[in-house]
Every structure is written in structure tokens, then in C-alpha cells.
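During the reporting period, we have paired protein sequences with C-alpha cells. One record among many follows, to show the layout:
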Amino acid sequence: MTELQVSVVICAYTEKRWDEIHAAVESVRRQTVQAKEILLVVDHNPVLFDRLAAAMPDVTVLENSSERGLSGGKNTGVARVTGEIVAFLDDDAIADSNWLKYLLDGYADRAVAGVGGLTLPKWETRRPPWFPEEFDWTVGCTYIGMPKSRAPVRNLMGGNASFRTEVFSIAGLFQTGIGRSASKRPLGCEETEFCIRLLQRSPRSVLLFDDRAAIQHLVPAARCKFSYFRSRCFAEGLSKAQVTASVGPADGLSSERRYVSSALPRGVTRGLADALRGDLWGLGRAGAIVVGLSATALGYAQGWWNTRWRRIDPRDALTEAQADADATVRRETA
């Protein structure tokens, strides 16, 4: 079989991550299996584009030619890649040296359409003692409830994911209006919607999680605050409402049902048991699980109401509901 070549796409948007962007690119340069190319997509920031293009002559630096936001940046990268595989890495993440090797291993099976890996938190300060591992997804990391070893999954996490380039001709591109943008609203799920849409259109395809393909994802101090935790959970609910509007609730919430009915109750029980053993922060972790689930459910209900009953565009629903959530957070943290 001909050896597959992989293109790596990294999306960037702010000069504040200058050092992190360089570290991400350098981690790709040092892979044991070399990437065919590195594409760095800059999201509507001409100053950053010029600086990166001058600083990285060996990297293909592109301006986002689509709508502002992470989905548009990824779509710009997909349109320019030349490898048979396209891998996505967050601009504030560092890939282990064998990251690409293990991602590519999964494609020995022709049924595999995408492979993602393990995303570990790299805390800027330290892990808050109240922060439950079941909610590491709020900081873009692998969480309790996901597989612990190599296994098929419904969707991959966007900051550590790869796909056969050909699948974009089957599933289409990432849906703009879902996921991160230049605003401060911590939305997500653009990769979830894409993965579900891919499997709906190509039911025999497999998406694979491989814990050996590991990266470290920076968690800044600002994302360790409880106010961010609540806001991120609420935003996830909003995003999930838009996902289900696109792909239907049966597929859109299949993994979430298992997570809510299995992983979260075990997490609450473990937190209470830790408290009985003398770790009083166990109560905090148990409470955070309850708060996080409640905030996510509230966000989903708000998004569902806006898109179904009020008959407004899902993007406007996200904007409106998240603005309400941001106002609530500002009041509570003032």
C-alpha cells in the first residue's frame, strides 16, 4: 500500500498566542513521521498574517477566505491541502513526537475515515481542586466518559483530529456558525456536527480514537474560573441544540445520553466518596458536575426553544442566548 501523506492545518487568530503558535508549529516540525506540509490559517487578522508569513517561510500561511471563526479557518485549510490525510491541531497545543505516526496508523483500515487522539490539559497554573475530570471537555481536553484506549467513536475532538481528505467531498465542509469565533463566547461542536454528518452520509465509515496520538493543550488561568466553567457549559448546550437541528436528536445526542446516564452519576458518587475519605474538595467536584450538567441542559433548552418555537435562524439563536448568558456571568462575577 502506498504510504499516505498528511497535511497539518493549524488555525490562529490572535497575536496574544504568538509563542503558543510557534510551539505548536515546532511540535509538528519535530514529528517522527514528517508532515507533507503545514498550513497556518489566520482568521481575519492582517497584522498577525504578515508577522507569521515573515517568521515562518517553511509554513504555508493563509488568510481565512471564509467566514470569521474556526469553521471558516478549517475550511480554508481543507481547500488548500495536498495530502491524502488532513490533521488539525489547536494553535495552543503541543503534539507529542509520534502524534502523526499514530494518527496515520489508523488508516491501514480502509473503512477508517478519521482518527483522533488523546488531548491532555497543560495547566498554566494548576488544576482547580473543584474541577471534575468528567468536564475536561470544557477546556478542550479528553474527559472521563471517553474511551480509555483505541476504539471507534461517534465524533472526534476538533483540536486533535484527522480525516481522509476525500471525505469532505462526501460530507461537505465544516458548518460555519457553529464553533469558536473571534468573539468571547465559548461555543463549540463544529467537529461534532461534521463527524455525525459524515457518518450519516457514509454509514460504513469508521471514526477512530487512538489514545497514543497525544497532544498537550494549554489551559490558561482565565479558563480555570468557575464563571468560565458555567458559561462554557451553557454555550455547549446552545451548540448542541444547533447540532441536533442539523443532524437530528437521535444521532446528535447519542453519546451525550450515555455520558449523562453513566459517567456523570459515577463522578458524583466518586466525589462524595472522596469527601467521606477526607478530601472535602470531593464535594466541590460533585457539585460542579451538577452545576455543569444543569447549565448545559439550560443552554440546550434555550437553543431548542429559539430554533424550534420562535422559528429564528440557529445562528441568531446562539448569539441571542449566549449574550444573555454572558450578561448573567458578568452580574454574578461583578
Summary: Strands lie at 6-12, 37-42, 60-63, 85-90, 93-95, 112-123, 151-152, 160-164, 206-219. The two ends are 60 Å apart (CA to CA). The longest strand covers residues 206-219. The CA atoms of residues 121 and 191 lie 19 Å apart.
